[in-house]
Specification:
Elements (H helix, E strand, L loop, with lengths): L17 H20 L6 E5 L5 H8 L3 E6 L2 H7 L14 E5 L12 E7 L7 H14 E12 L7 H16 L2 H12 L2 H8 L3 E8 L4 E7 L6
Parallel strand pairs: 1-2, 1-4, 2-3, 4-5
Antiparallel strand pairs: 5-7, 6-7
């Protein structure tokens, strides 16, 4: 979860214990993202707002060439230690870069797959759109865009409501501005609504956290956008 703020790294402190805090809760989501993406040795993947690099690491383990991009140098310090966990078989498959997701340092149509997970909800509305526009720009025609973020659950079972309240509490604890952006995101319909606003078409979808997190696979056909 990374904010587009070039003046202050708000994640330098949390980066130290980010993995220990969140990895147990996000493992299932990350595995589903990896399976849905169909990343393999033929693919070049961009992980936007990559944080400490856990999802990028999973893509690389599938054999893909992966670049992780993040605005937080604190998060990237942790991420850059991850490639050593790949072993010699996938040496050189994983690279991390500092950069702003609204102005990515990449050429048009450079990647087969671009993905972003649990970062859009904390950005200001104007920033969200710019990030998605950049993701579309750097992804190849007929390539794949993967977006993971909060969504309104279809069902209202007890566990679903409990998970919704837990997520809301976590976002509130993250700070006033963070919570304001989260509320705007959810009030506007969550990630499915944002995708439709961008003219993107969902070709596959998985849900985790009892429907509270949506994993969307989007097919990119630039000639009809």
């Amino acid at each position: 979860m990374k904010k587009q703020d070039t003046n202050k790294d708000r994640y330098r402190t949390i980066a130290q214990f980010y993995d220990a805090l969140l990895n147990p809760f996000l493992a299932d989501t990350r595995n589903k993202v990896t399976m849905l993406s169909k990343a393999d040795q033929t693919k070049i993947v961009l992980e936007v707002a990559c944080g400490t690099g856990e999802q990028a690491l999973l893509y690389a383990r599938e054999g893909a060439e992966v670049i992780g991009l993040d605005i937080s140098r604190g998060m990237l310090t942790k991420a850059k230690k991850k490639p050593k966990n790949l072993g010699s078989r996938y040496a050189g498959k994983l690279t991390f870069m500092h950069g702003d997701a609204t102005r990515m340092p990449f050429s048009d149509e450079e990647f087969d797959i671009s993905s972003i997970a649990l970062a859009l909800h904390e950005m200001k509305p104007s920033i969200r759109g710019r990030v998605l526009e950049e993701m579309k720009r750097v992804t190849k025609d007929k390539g794949t865009v993967i977006i993971v973020d909060y969504a309104k659950p279809d069902k209202q079972a007890l566990l679903t409501r409990i998970y919704t309240y837990v997520i809301r509490a976590v976002e509130f604890i993250a700070g006033a501005e963070h919570y304001k952006n989260y509320k705007d995101f959810m009030n506007s319909g969550g990630i499915p609504s944002l995708v439709y606003q961008q003219g993107l078409k969902i070709c596959d979808e998985k849900r985790t956290y009892h429907g509270n997190i949506a994993i969307l696979k989007l097919a990119l056909f630039k000639d009809i956008l």
